[in-house]
Amino acid sequence: MPTTLSVPHLPSNYRLHIALFTSVTNAAHLHSQLLAKNAEYEYAFIEPSILVSHLQPISAGFRAIHDLLDPDVGLRTPNVHSETVFSLSPTHNITDSYRRFGISPSSTSVLAIKILDTSLASYSESSTLERLASIVEGTEVNFDTKEIRKLTDLSKVKKYYKLKDLGYVDQLYKKKGRTIEEKSEEQAWRDLEGAVLGAMALRSLV
Amino acid sequence: MPPLRLIDGTLVKQGAEAHVYKSTFLYPNVPCLIKVRPTKPYRHATLDMRLTKHRCISEARLLNRCRSMGVLCPTVYFVDEKRGEIIMEWIEGPSVRDFLHNYIDDASDHGKDENKAIDVQLDALMENIGQTIGKLHDIDTIHGDLTTSNLMLKPRESPGTQVLDTADTSLANSDVVLIDFGLGQVSSSDEDKAVDLYVLERAFLSTHPRATRLFDIIIDSYKRNCLGSSVVLRRLQEVRLRGRKKSMVG
Ligand SMILES: Nc1ncnc2c1ncn2[C@@H]1O[C@H](COP(=O)(O)OP(=O)(O)O)[C@@H](O)[C@H]1O
Ligand SMILES: [Mg+2]
Fold it and tell me: What is the nearest CA distance from B209 to chain A, expressed in angstroms?
């Protein structure tokens, strides 16, 4: 089922509508409509294999809405949806960010986000959710960390977020012959999540 | 359009450099801390902005560096460098400072055997602190303000563990988390690392009557765990001597 949420610190009329799909068959079409700037397809279509938790895309949406509303910042890309994709990036390269974090014509899963100001007269939650559920052709699954982790491509995440130093100090000690307590799988995911959220947050500082 | 206000939460502490608030990030059930560096009316406006921005960026970068290289500290969630604001992971605590105070207050109420059991746990905590600072220095990071308030305890995340608040909770199951990197820097200098330890030593000895023994355990753990410890500890001797001379003069 799609998720609708408003986010602490942002005006509550701004809402994210989110749905996750696997076995997607129309990624090429969605991608072409993005390139054609078809307003009907103004969504953040995110490639789920670069996600490690459900907080990651929400954090990107938070940043996009924040920058939209902050007169000192403003958007660097055409709209809040492209900005959400850009906000997943740890660098300033907009074109790269679309290519890496947005969907490609060959994507087989898609995370779709629609951000709307619900105070507008034109807003309707039910039609927004209906459209969200039908625009991507595939199997909708729960938008949660459990489903997202099934789709994660760890080597891509580490490359794009430049995480070669992840857990560096343990590696260093291991090399010196020390026995290091193995991390639980959950802890390893948490560490990865922390590093990714941090890399996104520091984009403006690189 | 309504103005954006990141700072909505409960004020935790209003220090000289920073105000910190407890709030939530993304979901109402994800607690976070918002650290704000307010502008100083007595400082020149442009200079003030630059300084605020610099401290904020520096702290965010160091937190991120430590977190990803494997030294426990809060995850950075969001940075507004222009306003000098950082949103980061909430560490439930308590701080080592509060923990030690509670412990020392409690200790007098207990019998001898019980005290012994608590001492064993306290030793484990000191061991843990030494190890954590050793890791920090092995990734060439200087904290810059190592006090017991800037060391927090975090119960290790495993189902069934409870939040730690008194001395009898198992310290073996909690991690030491470093916070407050506002004065930190990246440096491989032995002198900088020695000064880091010296600052902690002063902080320890001034706040806790039985601290000499405790600090010795920290140093011993640092010696065994930190790869570069021998040169740093030799430096520490020099730093102590300098400190003593200074205090005799001043
Ligand atoms: N991430 C955090 N989680 C929970 N409490 C925190 C966190 N960071 C800071 N605090 C609390 O706020 C206090 C002040 O924050 P700190 O970063 O140390 O700023 P200051 O420069 O004022 O010392 C700390 O002593 C601690 O009690
Ligand atoms: Mg502090």
Answer: 34
Name the closest ligand to CA B33.
Answer: 1
Contacts of B77 in chain A (CB under 8 A): 59, 197, 201
Residue of B nearest to A64 (CA): B78
Nearest one of A138, A93, A83, A92 to A113, comparing CA atoms: A83
Q: What is the CATH number of the domain that holds A30?
A: 3.30.2380.10
Question: Is this prediction's pTM over 0.90?
Answer: yes
pLDDT digits (tens, 9 = 90+) for A86-139: 999 999 999 999 999 999 999 999 999 999 999 999 999 999 999 999 999 999
8 Å CB contact between B229 and B221: no
As residues whose CB is below 5 A from the ion ligand 2, the structure lists B 150, 180
Return the axis-axis angle of helices B45-69 and A185-201, rounded to nearest 10°. Answer: 160
Two tokens at B146? Answer: 């190592």
How far apart CA B179 and CA A55 sit, in angstroms, is 22
For residue A176, list chain B residues with Cβ-Cβ distance below 8 A: 227
Domain of B37, CATH number, reads 3.30.200.20
Please give the residue range of the domain that contains residue B229. Answer: 96-249
Nearest atom within ligand 1 for CA of residue B15: 22
Tokens 């004020």, located at residue? B11
Q: Which of A8, A11, A170 sits opposite B24 (nearest CB)?
A: A8
CB A88 within 8 A of CB A200: yes
A46, part of any domain: yes
Residue A107 forms part of a structural domain:
yes
CA B130 – CA B221 distance, rounded (Å): 5
At A96, which amino acid appears?
Answer: D
Quote the ipTM score.
0.95
**Cβ atoms A200, A90 nearer than 8 A:** yes
Note whether A9 contacts B23, CB cutoff 8 Å: yes
Say whether residue B26 is in contact with chain A using an 8 A CB cutoff. Answer: yes
Mean pLDDT by 10 residues, chain B (250 residues): 63 87 95 88 79 92 97 97 93 91 68 72 92 98 96 76 48 87 97 97 83 93 97 97 77
**Ligand 1, atom 13: closest residue by C-alpha:** B13
Local structure of B81: helix, strand or coil: coil
